[in-house]
Amino acid sequence: MSNIAFTPIEDRVLIRPVEAESVSASGIVLPDSAQERPNRGVVVAAGPGQQSKDGSRIDMPVAVGEEVIFAQYAGSKVEMNGEEYKILRADEILAKIANS
Known about the structure:
Blueprint: E1 12-17, E2 40-46, E3 67-70, E4 76-80, E5 83-89, E6 93-97
Antiparallel strand pairs: 1-2, 1-5, 2-3, 3-6, 4-5
């Protein structure tokens, strides 16, 4: 992963999607049209958090380096340095994946 100068604002995060599986569990090679869109990825950058009405910051639920699951059509696609990323609001992240 290259070093990216990117700072999301408020409660937004930059996610590098994990590649879709190109081979099924039974060993069949899947064409691009049959592959599911990735809905998991790694947080590359996170904003400072949303500002509450009293002016304090609400802590972000995720941190850089964490693997997350997000809604399939959530966020906006962006391309930087030849790689595709997604920008999502923190509330579009459905879960964190704990690496054990």
